[in-house]
Amino acid sequence: MPDPTKINVLFVCNRNQWRSATGEQMWSNHANLWVRSAGTSPSAMPTVYKGGILWADVIFVMEEKH
User: Fold this and answer.
1) Residue 42 CA: distances (Å) to CA of 26, 29, 30
2) How far apart are CA 42 and CA 5, in angstroms?
3) Residue 13 is inside which H or E element, if any?
């Protein structure tokens, strides 16, 4: 059962290789957060999808274009 006191945070960049993946790693041990990362490019692993967006309480994008 999900912890309702934690905030779901999604980090997004192009390919989820550096920026968003680093954000996820840096915040993964924070006691009040659940974190994930994704990319906007079709070659990203994983890519941003509707379920991930609906899951997130907060979405951090790494560039204005995102």
Assistant:
1) 24, 28, 29
2) 33
3) strand 7-13
